[in-house]
Amino acid sequence: MARDDRERRPTVFIIAGEESGDILGSSLMAALAARLGGRVRFLGVGGQRMQRLGLASLFPIEEISLHGISEVLLRIPRLLGRIRQTARAVAAASPDVLVLVDAPAFNLRVGHRVRRLAPGIPIVDYVSPSVWAYAPGRARRMARFVDRLLAILPFEPAVHRRLGGPATFYVGHPLLQRLEDLRPAAGERTQLTAGTKPVLVVLPGSRRSEVTRLMPVFGETVGKVAGRPGGVEVLLSAVPRLAAEVRAMAAAWPVAPTIVEGEAATYAAFRRSHAALAASGTVTLELALSGVPMVVAYRLDAFLKVLRHLLKAHSIVLANLVLGENVIPEFIDADAEPERLARALLPLLSLTPDRARQLAAFGQIEALMALESGTPSARAAEIVAEAMQPPALAGGVATGIKVG
């Protein structure tokens, strides 16, 4: 492409490595197109949402959509091949900016290679790896090749400053654009009184490994909780690709849940529910923003159990990390057993101090995560567009944009 044509139509090479990244990447693409008046060309790797916006993916996103260290280790040769292929494609395209969307096991390796192959290409990383939880040394290593890091959790800029990471900008969590989907309308969530039959939503995770480890434990917990006076209505969320397995495992539960499939149905369940039993993950922020008190559990895979002593964060629950205190009870591995989970969950199903404490804390979360103006995708697009302009230097601060 001639240089004068590139000036009319900037090129963005964008890489997403899993479904959540595809959602985030597509929102960024749309915001960039709006900001640049449609004069932008997209190359890279992405899923269906990004492809609908004009991206021709180098290869199917499923090839690098891996969850958990164990799964990554099993597919190292294929991953290394795709990393080399992608880095070469970036260097050959010589885009105005490279945007790495989450998927650090893949994307950070691509970024490191691109910096060696084509050091003049600005690199923006969208979503910080969990340096606050483990492997804090990654922050300083990222600073060698990531020019700007877009953080979706409000405490992350300070963490990267402390650890010597790249210039980090809080752009807001994408959930801030979904508050209407999460918040109950008038009458959707019945008022919890002494005579109310509470609604409990159960969320065993979106990954097969999570579901397999947690479904039996959650089933026993629900059985214990359902014995409370007045009973409880149980909703069980399943991602569509695992719905058949969830149904089969739920058939052995002592209480038959109503199974809801997909995001829209799950958000509708949030808007009805009075409490939740959930696997650790982004869902804890969704529940907090929806105003649903919860108990969180997680069982690590065999590899992570060995490394558990390396965890640095005070919590595995994102909502607790945003709040800066462990308001939501959490149970890991051997602690995640039915008796303990039920004991923590029961007070949340009636008007108790435990329930009130969580709800009061949830009232602070939106304020802690809020942006001064605009939306997360528009804020991210602003910084990516700025990175395409001089001076696009490693570790530099974008003109007119405040770090942190």
Structural account:
With 404 residues, the chain is α/β, with parallel strands linked by helices. The chain has two domains: 3-172 and 372-387, 3-Layer(aba) Sandwich (Rossmann fold); 179-369, Glycogen Phosphorylase B (Rossmann fold, 3-Layer(aba) Sandwich), CATH 3.40.50. 44% of the residues lie in helices and 14% in strands. Strands 2-1-3-4-5-6 form a six-stranded parallel sheet, with helices on both faces. Strands 9-8-7-10-11-12 form a six-stranded parallel sheet, with helices on both faces. α2 links the parallel β1 (11-16) and β2. α5 (76-93) crosses α6. The longest helix has 18 residues, at 76-93. It is elongated, with a radius of gyration of 22 Å. The two termini are 36 Å apart.
